Amino acid sequence: MYRLFTNVGLILFLFLLNSAVLGQATYDTLSIYDLQYVPDPGTDDTSPYLGDTVVVKGLVMTGPRDLWIGARWSMYVVDPDSFPKPWSGFFIVQNDTNQVNTNFGFLEPGMICYFTGLVDSYQGFTQLSIYGFNFIPDEVIPVTNVSSGNELPGPKLLTAADLEDLASAEQWESMFVRIENATIISNSISGNWASANDASGSTFYLAEYFNWFRDRLNDGTYDWPVGGTNFNVTGFTRDETGTPGRVMNVNPRDTADVEVSFESKSRNSNTNPTDDSNSLGILIASAFKDFIGTGVCFNRS
Question: In the chain, which ranges are continuous DSSP H helix?
Answer without folding.
Answer: 2-23, 32-36, 160-164, 166-169, 211-219, 277-292
